[in-house]
């Protein structure tokens, strides 16, 4: 059976990855997905989050609780830094996102040159954590804007003929570790 991905995530233009009445698949572990029908799509207006950081402070944990959703919802988000601070994203909490084999990369002001790389997805009330770093020798109030779309979803009993992958978790969480 062939599967059709109707849309590609991480486009430059920020738009919903799927529309109402279409299907999504959320990978939950290696070889295992949950399938949903999208009932409704609604935009979420920009949310400004912030955290005070002392001079040269590192690894200050911040949970993105502002974007928690109900059980029958999934979210598509973009995060944009407003200050020149660095943020590492973890989702789930112990597993980094946006990294290579040897480097954990940061969300920071240069990321805005290619804003689609700042896109991420959530499901239910599970949200990423940020570890914030102030690289400067003076205190700063680290602010970020998060905006996105929320999807009302309904679980399907069987795999649909067509669906779009909804990449919620870090790849290591889904496949079971680095280097696989």
Protein described:
By secondary structure, the protein is mainly beta. It is built from 1 helix and 9 strands. A 6-stranded mixed β-sheet has the order 6-4-8-2-1-9. Strand 1 and strand 2 form a beta hairpin. The chain is elongated. The model is unreliable at 1-6 (pLDDT under 50).
How many whole angstroms does the radius of gyration measure? 17 Å
Summed over residues and divided by their number, the pLDDT gives a mean of 84
Count up the helices. Answer: 1
**Low-pLDDT stretches:** 1-6
The SSE order reads EEEEEEEEEH
- Structural class, please? mainly beta
User: Approximately how much beta-strand content do the residues carry?
Assistant: 35-45%
Note the overall shape: elongated
Question: What kind of sheet is the major sheet?
Answer: 6 strands, mixed
Q: Helix coverage percent of residues? A: under 10%
Provide the spatial order of strands within the biggest beta sheet: 6-4-8-2-1-9
- Terminal Cα span: 25 Å
How many strands appear in the DSSP assignment?
A: 9
Task: Summarize this entry quickly.
With 180 residues, this protein is an all-beta fold.
């Amino acid at each position: 059976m062939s599967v059709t991905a109707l849309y590609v995530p991480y486009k430059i233009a920020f738009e919903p990855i799927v529309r109402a009445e279409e299907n999504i698949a959320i990978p939950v572990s290696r070889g295992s997905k949950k399938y949903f029908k999208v009932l409704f799509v609604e935009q979420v207006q920009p949310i400004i989050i912030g955290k005070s950081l002392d001079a040269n402070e590192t690894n200050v944990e911040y949970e993105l609780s502002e974007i928690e959703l109900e059980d029958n919802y999934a979210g598509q988000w973009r995060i944009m830094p407003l200050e020149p601070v660095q943020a590492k994203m973890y989702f789930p909490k112990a597993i980094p996102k946006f990294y290579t084999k040897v480097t954990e990369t940061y969300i920071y002001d240069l990321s805005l040159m290619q804003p689609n790389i700042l896109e991420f997805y959530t499901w239910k009330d599970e949200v990423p954590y940020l570890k914030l770093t102030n690289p400067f020798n003076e205190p700063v109030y680290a602010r970020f804007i998060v905006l996105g779309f929320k999807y009302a979803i309904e679980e399907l009993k069987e795999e649909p003929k067509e669906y779009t992958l909804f990449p919620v978790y870090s790849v290591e969480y889904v496949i079971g570790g680095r280097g696989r």
